[in-house]
Structures are given as structure tokens and as C-alpha cells.
Amino acid sequence: MTADEAWRGAGLEERATAIKVQSRRRVFVDLAPVDFKAVVAWLVTERGFTHVATVTGIDVGSEIEVIYHLAHGALVLSLRVAVSKEEPTLPSIVDLVPGATFYEREVHDLFGVAFEGNPDLSPLVLPDDWPSEIHPLRREWPADRIHRRLEGT
User: Fold this and answer.
1) Which of 19, 43, 130, 132 ranks highest by number of CB atoms within 10 Å?
2) Closest CA to 92 of 113, 117, 68, 69
3) How many domains does the chain have?
4) Can you give the CATH number for the domain in which 132 is found?
5) Can you give the pLDDT of all 153 residues of the chain as single tens digits?
6) CA 122, CA 116: separation in Å to the nearest integer?
7) What is the extent of the structural domain holding 37?
8) pTM of the model
9) Alpha helices in the chain, H assignment, sequence order
10) Cβ(43)–Cβ(27) below 8 Å
């Protein structure tokens, strides 16, 4: 399957807000949160994308971009979904791709994105007693501010 073949079908052309075929083996697809889970379900059942290579988060100002890198052989589809910092919520895909569990927990720890349906969003990379309002990879939490908050000053 080529990169171009991977995403064609099931109305993905209509659901995507942008599609960039970077190479024969790499495609970036931007999706609205409302379409995200349905697209992943279709990719898993119809195209065999059952492996999550990783999930990344990026603070882009007023939003957090969550990028799921789904792999099928040498082909990687990167699904990018932006969520508001005010309501950083996205449906979990652990019921479709169980390997997403730890990646979603990590993005939850570091960026504060709540993955609805993930059965365990307990801290993964941060200490258990870490303040729940501090997400260290968000722009509003530079190291000096985190240090002051943790020291109580």
C-alpha cells in the first residue's frame, strides 16, 4: 500500500482539514476532534493501521496539537488534532489500538490533555505527587515558574 492509497476512502478527503503527502511512506492528516476517532477506527479496520509508533504533543499557543503516528509496515500516517488549552479533551483510541495507552498517559502528564475513555490516566513520567495543574511542556510553565511553584514561593 502506498501513502496515497492509505488515506483514500471512507470520506477521509472530506473529513481532513489538510492532507500532506510528504513522501511515498509518510502522510500527515489534520483532523477535527469530532472526526478523529471515526477516522482511526476506519484506518484500523479497513487499512490495518494497528500499531501506534508514538503520540506527540506540541504547545502551539492557544492549542495543543496531538499527533498520533500510526504505522502499517513502512508506511506512517500522522494524524494531527488540535485541542483548545481551555478544554484539552480528545477521545482515547485505546479500545481500538491498545498500544496507545502509555502514549496517551504521557501526553496527559506533560500537556494536560484528557483522553476520554482511557481507563488509566494516572501519572506515567511525572511523580505521583506532582501538582495536577502543572503540565511541564506547556509554554506557560517554563522551568523557573515550575521551580518556584514546587518550592512554594
Assistant:
1) 43
2) 117
3) 1
4) 3.30.460.80
5) 665 566 566 567 778 888 898 888 898 999 999 999 999 999 999 889 999 999 999 999 999 999 999 999 999 999 999 999 999 999 999 999 999 999 999 999 999 999 999 999 999 999 999 999 999 999 999 999 999 999 985
6) 13
7) 3-151
8) 0.91
9) 3-7, 12-15, 33-47, 101-111, 143-151
10) no
